[in-house]
Amino acid sequence: DAGVIQSPRHEVTEMGQEVTLRCKPISGHDYLFWYRQTMMRGLELLIYFNNNVPIDDSGMPEDRFSAKMPNASFSTLKIQPSEPRDSAVYFCASRPWQGVEQFFGPGTRLTVL
Amino acid sequence: KQEVTQIPAALSVPEGENLVLNCSFTDSAIYNLQWFRQDPGKGLTSLLLIQSSQREQTSGRLNASLDKSSGRSTLYIAASQPGDSATYLCATVMEYGNKLVFGAGTILRVKS
Prior knowledge:
The complex is a heterodimer of chains A (113) and B (112). Chain A contains no helices and eleven strands. Chain A has strands spanning 5-7, 10-13, 19-24, 31-38, 42-50, 53-56, 65-71, 74-79, 88-95, 103-104, 108-112. In chain A, the strands form two sheets. In chain A, strands 2, 4, 5, 6, 9, 10 and 11 form a seven-stranded mixed sheet that branches. In chain A, a hairpin with a 3-residue loop joins strand 4 and strand 5 (42-50). Chain A is globular, with a radius of gyration of 13 Å. Chain A starts with a strand and ends with a strand. In chain B, 0% of the residues lie in helices and 59% in strands. In chain B, strands 2, 4, 5, 9, 10 and 11 form a six-stranded mixed sheet that branches. In chain B, a hairpin with a 4-residue loop joins strand 9 and strand 10 (99-102). Chain B is globular and about 40 Å long. Chain A binds chain B through residues 4, 31, 33, 35, 42-45, 48, 55-56, 91, 93, 95, 99-107, 109, and chain B through 31-32, 34, 36, 41-46, 49, 51, 89, 91, 93, 96-105.
């Protein structure tokens, strides 16, 4: 298996623009997680899905952030409008229903100018 | 709210030394505890996962211990090598594996 796939790996955009980050979980994994890593706050859970349904979005910082999982093999994290303080590395992770270990993707480094 | 603290924040050692990384947490109602490695510009690699009922786990030169009652875990690295240089993250696993709360990490540099 190719592992968790994220795209793009790097994104540079200007303040006010819409940004969409993409994630393909490991096939057969029922849970999908979105994390954000910054120097100030470290790694934080933003939202997670079970069987494509959002379960807990309490970590989503503002209404500018939204996440969807239209099917078992694809999820998006959207920021609209983006702000410089959204600059961070965004990680996607997945795990199977009966497992406890989360498998992380390589991350997307977002820079908002 | 769970808080995870890692000490030291950074560590520089000569090759061959045995070393200990520390992790403490405030809420002992954890499901598991997990140690990760992160290389610059890369994702997270899981090193060891300790179930809440276990006291330690070993993998090669790595040994992780867990003391839930005192809210502490240690990662022991034996005979360190330059290839061990990375950031090491500790995470408590809450809510049946669905919520990881991370520490800020320990940046390790092993000098040859």
